[in-house]
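From the pipeline queue, job 12 of 40. The input is one protein chain; the requested action is below.

Action: predict structure.
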Amino acid sequence: MAAAPALSGALTLRASPGPHTGAPAPPSEPALPAAPPSAGAAPPPRGVPRAEAALVPSLPAGGARPRLSRGGAAMAAGRGRLRTLAAMPEDCSETVNAGIKSLYLTPSIKPKPNVCIESMPSEILLKVFSYLDAVSLLAVGCVNMRFYDLANDNGIWLKLYSSSLHPKWTIRKMKSKQTETVSLGCAAVHDKKPGYWKKEYIFKQTSAFKARVMRLVKFLDPYTGLPCKNKEAMKVSGLRWIIVLKDKNGKEYVVEKPNLSFKDTSVTILWYGTDWPCLDILSTLKLFGVTPLLPDQSRPPNKNGPRRFSLIAEYHLAYLTESSVAIGADELVQLFSLSPGLLVGIWKEKNEIAFVMANLHYNQLLERSILGSATVQYVPPPNKPLLDDTDSEYGLHDYTLHLDLHGRNCMYLCGSFKYLFCRKRDIENGFLRLRVVNLQDNRKHLPVIGTLGICWETDVFKGNVKDCFVMDLTLLDETGKPFWCFSAPVRMELSTKSSGLYDYMGHIYTADYSDAEGKVCLEFVWLEETKEYIVVSLVLYVSTKKVNSWYGTNY
């Protein structure tokens, strides 16, 4: 490239004016001296100025062209275009001059090497990680073992832990005390095992989160004695419910995004879709309450972020149709009930899952959905009985009942009954009998609104299974505390006995429910004239074990 400095001077190529122009040619400018032709070199091409011809490399004597690299081929193609422009009129001379300069004077651009973040030194990665928040650090730690070790750095988590101890308005004061905390921070970092401050930070955040949510549980509804700010608590905590299906080989299927239906004392959760696993291979179904591990009040919870699972209930699906209770059926689906409070809809033709419905009572619902773990359910603290030696029938009176009958989308019955009691002589077979509605006392008979049934839906179909409903029962003790609560599907059966009442002439239907804490017996009369049900009998049987453990008695 010895000729490169000369090109930066007054290199200008001009074509001679054509014969059709009469304008005189401009004064010629000094051109570069032509290089002497080498021996055996081919003559320059016809019509190419001598100045450019000096820049074209000469061919060897044999006439064979040398092989050019990709960059050399591009430069040769550029020179060929410049030769064409050189033969054009003089207005192209400046373009030709600029093109020659760009070909010979522009340095070649080398491709930048690809830099992988995993190949960076640990010191640089720690500096990058120090700008991340807690949720991002937990996500980065899931990439590989190296990132996991770096994301557990005590220095980063101690900084997050320290900043969470002070409100935002004390940031200026914290900056003034940085010199005082440097020595303390160094000791706290080096004296602790890796990941220590990470665990401390998560524990502190989850404790504050639980305390904030549990404050909302303290607001009780005087009508039902249950928490009345469940929706607000769900919004604050980011609580959601999911089900996890597990097959016989151990593979798990997670089903999310349910439909929620809130009632006065319970919430009904419905999952449906088209990608259910085959029923024959399923073994268990687990119901979880899911909350963000580190909730942020300034933004909605991220479903892909770290989450905390709280086991609410576990059900066995093996031999579902043989071992569970059939609640009812319509033209498309058949309903099967699993305790506590679960309904599984099965397609009649395919014998596959159509939907899953869970009924959760509000009593300690937030505690069960948040305070448990992924493997162990939340266990409420035992009730501390207040002994009353002066009352010979302590624990047998002043009960309050709140009863709801609904079909997920519609309410059929909502009633409250106070001052329920039981005599000692009415204790039989280990149960206390609380008669709520008497068959002979028609003043307490209750009409049922609408035709009883449970509504269901999927992506394509909707239906209503008749002669069944969801019962929400809340029994309060004499102090107003929830004593016995449940939300469960119940089926109706036609009774063989007649009503025996002159006021109601029609068929009698019964609906019974039982669990470890008691039994409920309901009787309806169907009035054909008005097309409605009338509740003519309602009796509760409470287990004496439940009463004795609650009150400290010995019935």
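Job complete. Residues 397 and 421 are 4 Å apart (CA to CA).
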